[in-house]
Amino acid sequence: MDKNKYKLLNLNLREYYEFIINNSNILKKDFIEFSGQRFEKLIFLENKEEEFQIHLEEHYRFVPYENYVRDIESNVYKGYNTSMITDDFRTTSERLFEKYCEKNGNVKYVYKNGDSGQQYLSIVYRTKFDKQRLFYPDYVVQLEDGSIWLIETKGGESRGQSKNIDIQIENKLEAFKYFANKHGYNFGFIRGKNDELYFNNNEYVDDMNDFRWLLLEEIW
Fold it and tell me: In the structure, what pLDDT confidence band is assigned to residue 36 with cuts at 50, 70 and 90?
């Protein structure tokens, strides 16, 4: 059997190394994109779970000397204000969402979750390479009817172009579904388009004209 016919591009060792070095950026991009493809097994291991509680105090960055600062009453923390949700610290979708909640009479409180650390709410998801990772939903929201919603905001759409850069979004959505169903929470992804917010907890698609993206105001 001619083993050479099964080599990558039929290269010798030196040529193989040259190929890897010369194409490292392309190969890295391909591996990253592959890792973000939906994990088909949909097997969720019973990981150790920690009880999550909203702490009595939290520290948020803010812009000093910001003009026209006003408190955001819907936030769970007293003193949380508009200097903490500028574009220095929040994405467009996050700012739109927090302002939406502030004006929505159905919202009882909003908690802005952290990005890392054991003290914050995190969910385990799996990549195409079967690696387990954590993601941290952006918000925990309680409505006046008592229902709890876990919300993850993503880049929206502008001039027909998707601004979402999270390649793991499909894997995160499946983990989101599993976690929310297990614990009795509502959940969803939110993205902005033309200053409107859209909601999806069904199946992720980039195109926000797709029927799976619903106006948030139709949900609550």
Answer: very low
Beta-ladder partners of 148: 142
- Nearest one of 114, 112, 111 to 142, comparing CA atoms: 111
Residue 52 token pair: 């999550």
Chain centroid, CA 216 distance in Å? 17
Q: Is 149 exposed, middle or buried (0-12, 13-18, 19+ CB in 10 A)?
A: buried
User: Is 194 in a helix, a strand, or coil?
Assistant: coil
Residue 30 identity: D
**Domains along the sequence of the chain with CATH:** 13-218 (3.40.1350)
Instruction: Find where tokens 């969402």 sit.
Output: 97
pTM over 0.90: no
Mean pLDDT value of segment 43-52:
63
CA nearest neighbour of 88 among 64, 72, 71: 64
Give the residue-averaged pLDDT of 131-139.
92
Residue 22 near residue 115 (C-beta atoms within 8 A): no
